[in-house]
């Protein structure tokens, strides 16, 4: 690849600062990058990456001579990146310094569209730089960055959320509250809309599982509140919302549900918004009930964000330890992860040997995440489904119960598990490894999915390529994703509250890096907390749309 130039200059909107120039770090191979207009073309071998940074000195520990962004210490910010990404993997970083050394950094994986990077600056902050990290092969077009402080971000979100003039007694639609969710929607028992206002319903798949999802989304800053519609929802969910101080949004209930609404929703200390004509008598009994003028909504979202920050800083009452979001967090919590380039040459054979024989009663017990996959099947409208790495088939059994007319097939490398699943549920399960995927026709199944399978494969490049080829409408991957890729040897176990050795042949991958466009139109990504033991807290669900997805 011939380099046209090795730097990119752009202006940050609302920053009130000089344009920023990102330069290829001196030790990176220049042939791996070409810059044409506002597009970065990059081509790197597997396992390699490069950085473009906004400082002259290429050493990350050295503070920049001039700051890239005018930031204040101990203040919340949102840096929005407008990008188009075609293949490869890209992430945006803001790295903070005091006068002498590096303090901390914030980062976010970039996707086509608008990606917000939210962070709070260190109390010792003096200066910072911006960096782009590129891996794989692709093209990144950077349309620009917009920097907002927390109040500006909340006000901007409110302006977009409330389009209609405010009419006293009538609450406009809150479907687009804020811009709290970075990466779209994944179907499931607790789907997350782009606005961060989570729909909840009376139908509980597993109360403990759903509460863990709410807690995780709230901790990660992806959840502003709950939208109950006009339903009666479980008291445990309302208890959680009150404890976290998130927003409760409800339609005015009919006469039959009004006593429940007054006793269970209006009686809570959480802020409440009601769509429709508000009963004047409610005002005296529910001082937290409010209208939704633009200023009110901006103040409310800022209040919710501040309350979340205080709770996370205090660590009091958290349902589980914070899930690591940065490589430094992984190290601090005692994880040991071996880089992909440091794995032995026979790693694949060792992994297959372990998982072809490993059998445990755990894999035959129904689990609530089977309902997550069943919801994805319904959301995609699939009539044929293939699970790769099905073990005994409990996820397929959950789909069979929820969607009896769907044609189901399961593949697994473990013959004993396949026999057990066939005998127990009568499913179409077959002994098969990744080497047999090449024999399956293109577009053979509407939906292809995995649950904790790619996190047991030391190189998922070929597997992802085959599964995307076999899928017609979509592919769903529910897999371990930590902020670092590689073999997970030791991890922090939430159930034990201590570091322990991981199950043999366990890995962490940025799965979206292996889902190129084309053929993928869009990848919807959200974190999942499957359970407290082993690597259960560290999952993401990646829904890759191979046909244009429905409008969000």
Name a few traits of the molecule:
Jelly Rolls; Rossmann fold; seven-stranded mixed β-sheet; 30% strand; 12 helices; globular; ten-stranded mixed β-sheet; 552 residues; alpha/beta
Structure, explained:
The chain is an alpha/beta fold. The protein has three domains: 7-151, Sandwich (Jelly Rolls), CATH 2.60.120.260; 162-314, no CATH class; 327-545, Vaccinia Virus protein VP39 (Rossmann fold, 3-Layer(aba) Sandwich), CATH 3.40.50.150. 23% of the residues lie in helices and 30% in strands. It has twelve helices and 25 strands. The protein has helices at residues 150-161, 207-219, 235-244, 258-264, 280-285, 294-314, 327-332, 347-355, 369-380, 394-402, 415-425, 461-470; strands at residues 7-10, 12-13, 20-24, 33-36, 39-43, 49-53, 76-97, 102-109, 113-120, 127-149, 197-199, 225-229, 247-251, 272-275, 336-338, 384-388, 407-412, 429-431, 445-451, 471-480, 486-493, 498-501, 507-508, 522-528, 539-545. Strands 1, 2, 3, 4, 5, 6, 7, 8, 9 and 10 form a ten-stranded mixed β-sheet that branches. Strand 11 (197-199), helix 2 and strand 12 form a beta-alpha-beta unit. The longest helix is centred in the middle third of the chain and has 21 residues, at 294-314. The protein is globular and about 65 Å long. 43% of the residues are buried. The model is unreliable at 158-195 (pLDDT under 50).
């Amino acid at each position: 690849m011939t380099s046209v130039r090795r730097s990119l200059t752009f202006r940050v909107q609302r920053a009130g600062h000089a344009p920023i120039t990102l330069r290829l770090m001196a030790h990176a191979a220049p042939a791996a990058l070409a810059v044409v207009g506002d597009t970065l073309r990059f081509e790197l071998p597997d396992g390699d990456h490069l950085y473009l940074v906004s400082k002259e000195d290429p050493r990350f520990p050295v503070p920049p001579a001039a700051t890239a962004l005018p930031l204040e210490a101990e203040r919340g910010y949102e840096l929005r990146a407008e990008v188009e990404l075609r293949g490869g993997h890209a992430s945006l970083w803001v790295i903070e310094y005091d006068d002498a050394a590096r303090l901390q950094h914030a980062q976010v994986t970039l996707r086509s569209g608008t990606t917000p990077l939210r962070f709070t600056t260190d109390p010792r902050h003096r200066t910072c730089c911006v960096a782009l990290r590129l891996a794989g092969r692709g093209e990144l077009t950077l349309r620009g960055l917009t920097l907002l402080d927390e109040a500006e971000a909340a006000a901007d979100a409110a302006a977009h959320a409330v389009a209609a003039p405010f009419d006293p007694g009538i609450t406009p639609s809150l479907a687009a509250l804020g811009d709290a969710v970075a990466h779209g929607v994944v179907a499931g028992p607790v789907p997350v809309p782009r606005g961060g206002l989570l729909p909840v319903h009376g139908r509980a798949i597993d109360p403990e599982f759903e509460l863990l999802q709410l807690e995780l989304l709230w901790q990660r800053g992806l959840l502003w509140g709950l939208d109950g519609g006009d339903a009666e929802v479980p008291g445990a969910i309302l208890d959680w919302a009150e404890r976290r101080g998130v927003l409760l949004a409800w339609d005015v209930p009919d006469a039959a549900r009004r006593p429940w609404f007054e006793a269970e929703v209006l009686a809570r200390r959480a802020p409440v918004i009601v769509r429709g004509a508000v009963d004047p008598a409610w005002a005296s009994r529910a001082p937290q009930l409010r209208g939704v003028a633009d200023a009110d909504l901006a103040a409310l979202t800022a209040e919710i964000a501040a309350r979340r920050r205080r709770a996370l800083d205090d660590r009091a009452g958290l349902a589980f330890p914070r899930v690591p979001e940065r490589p430094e967090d992984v190290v601090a919590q005692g994880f040991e992860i071996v880089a992909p380039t440091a794995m032995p040459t026979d790693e694949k054979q060792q992994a297959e040997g372990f998982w072809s024989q490993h059998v445990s009663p755990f894999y035959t017990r129904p689990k609530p995440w089977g309902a997550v996959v069943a919801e994805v099947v319904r959301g995609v409208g699939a009539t044929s489904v293939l699970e790769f790495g099905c073990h005994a088939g409990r996820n397929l059994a959950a789909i069979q119960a929820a969607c009896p007319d769907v044609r189901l097939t399961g593949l697994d490398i473990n013959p004993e598990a396949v026999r057990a699943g066939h005998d127990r549920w009568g499913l179409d399960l077959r002994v098969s490894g990744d080497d047999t995927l090449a024999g399956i026709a293109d577009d053979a199944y509407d939906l292809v999915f995995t649950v904790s399978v790619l996190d047991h494969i030391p190189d998922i490049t070929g597997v992802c390529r085959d599964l995307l080829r076999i899928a017609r409408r979509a592919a769903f991957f529910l897999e371990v994703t930590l902020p670092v890729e590689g073999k997970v040897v030791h991890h922090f176990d939430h159930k034990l509250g201590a570091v322990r050795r991981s199950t043999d042949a366990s890995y962490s991958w940025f799965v979206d890096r292996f889902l190129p466009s084309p053929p993928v139109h869009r990848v919807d990504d959200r974190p999942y907390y499957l359970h407290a033991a082993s690597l259960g807290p560290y999952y993401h669900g990646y829904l890759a749309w191979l046909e244009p997805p429905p409008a969000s």
